[in-house]
């Protein structure tokens, strides 16, 4: 049976420059997008329990727009005034520009990398005298604390938001040829929303080792795993798999 329908558990990208669009056209696919997870803010009263003093720090590390939103939300709920001297270190230029929603951009000390956390650590190394705070989700990449510890950068990890299962009650079924996941929470969401889900001939594709392991832990079959040297991205991994599968299932 040829692969014709794919569900990607992420928000729909801009179709103008999406590799998924090219994939759909090349293989005559219908690709749907639906976020399986959502972000919830940690209430200020719960954040207080961690006894983290935001104003004891001189620099904030931001890895996403969500981190920016929840940092300033909690600061407001705690009625804190963030000093103009605070430094901001962002994973990318786009993330840095998002700060304009909350601060006067041109009057602050803002630094950014090219989208890779390892490169951001190189920027942080030039400011090791600062006391860093990094707002995080309860589910975050293992490389973040690992690289910071390896670089011996003094940093406080602050859990300010949580990644949880989305309500998919409006999605009556997951009757697709391929389901694509990017986080272990996405797999958890699948099982919570569809407790009677049976994989059968449905293919499951994952990005990252933690997500792949979550599939196995759930007793499901993993068919497509990325990244690999031959396919560093999910669209590339799907391209290789679909081309081979459809060739053998004409």
Report the sheet-strand fraction.
Answer: 15-25%
How far is it from the N-terminal to the C-terminal residue, by CA?
Answer: 7 Å
Mean of all residue-level pLDDT scores: 92
Enumerate the strands of the largest sheet in spatial order, edge to edge or round the barrel.
3-8-7-4-5-6
SSE succession: EHEEHEHEHEHEHEEHEHEH
Could you name the CATH topology of the largest domain? Rossmann fold
State the domain count: 2
**Rg calc:** 21 Å
Structural category is: alpha/beta
What is the helical fraction, as a range of percent? 25-40%
Number of H- or I-type helical stretches = 9
Instruction: Work out the number of β strands.
Output: 11
> Which CATH class of the largest domain is shown?
Alpha Beta
**Biggest sheet features:** 6 strands, mixed
Q: Shape, please? A: elongated
Question: What is the annotated CATH architecture of the largest domain?
Answer: 3-Layer(aba) Sandwich
Low-pLDDT windows of residues = none
């Amino acid at each position: 049976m040829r692969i014709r329908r794919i569900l990607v558990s992420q928000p729909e990208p801009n179709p103008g420059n999406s590799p998924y669009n090219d994939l759909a056209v090349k293989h005559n696919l219908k690709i749907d997008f639906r976020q399986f997870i959502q972000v919830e803010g940690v209430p200020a009263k719960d954040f207080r329990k961690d006894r983290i003093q935001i104003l004891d720090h001189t620099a904030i590390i931001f890895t996403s727009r969500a981190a920016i939103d929840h940092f300033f939300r909690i600061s407001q709920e705690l009625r804190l005034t963030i000093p103009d001297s605070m430094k901001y270190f962002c994973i990318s230029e786009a993330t840095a520009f998002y700060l304009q929603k909350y601060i006067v951009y041109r009057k602050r000390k803002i630094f950014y990398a090219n989208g890779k956390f390892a490169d951001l650590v190189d920027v942080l190394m030039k400011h090791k005298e600062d006391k860093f705070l990094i707002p995080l989700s309860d589910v975050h990449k293992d490389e973040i604390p690992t690289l910071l510890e390896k670089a011996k950068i003094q940093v406080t990890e602050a859990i300010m938001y949580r990644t949880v299962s989305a309500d998919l009650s409006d999605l009556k079924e997951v009757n697709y040829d391929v389901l694509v996941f990017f986080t272990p929470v996405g797999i958890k969401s699948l099982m919570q929303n569809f407790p009677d889900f049976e994989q059968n001939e449905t293919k499951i594709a994952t990005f990252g080792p933690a997500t792949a392991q979550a599939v196995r832990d759930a007793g499901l079959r993993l068919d497509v795993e990325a990244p690999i040297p031959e396919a560093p991205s999910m669209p590339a991994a799907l391209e290789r798999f679909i081309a081979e599968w459809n060739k053998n299932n004409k």
